[in-house]
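Tutorial, part two.
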Amino acid sequence: MKNEKPIGRSATGPKSNTGKARSSKNAVKHGLTAATTILKHECQNDLNALRAGLRASLCPVGHLEDLVAERIVQHAWRLRRFSKVETETMQHAMLDNDFDMMFSPGRITDGVRVGRGIGRDVPLEKISRYETASERSFFRCLQEFWALQARRQKATKTLH
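Running the prediction step on this input gives:
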């Protein structure tokens, strides 16, 4: 019994950077509350185009405005994701003639979760709740950005 490892010592997780990066995505189910901005099924070019468009509209100046502008981009991207998940949920419900699924959590049948894909196991109520929180965050960041710009413009006028 001298060679036995204590319980929990044998499962130490991935060692390589690739393995660590892959395992960091293990808990992502639907991506609605993901800490990462872009998910594996999303297109980096689409995010870059959104970022460029919003930054062109906002015209941030300085590090603080840049920081808040980037938060606005992240929230706008997530709001696009909500729309896609909601649409997919509705499409699956219509294809399956399962309108109860839209309003209840994913069901368990014989120990297996029913549904495939990003929208199947996410009831519309949950999507709506996450979307509302994200919208509030988006508009809060936008208000903060405009306040920063107003302060900067006022300070510039005072100097001249």
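DSSP finds five helices and two strands in the chain. In part three we will examine how such features are distributed along the chain.
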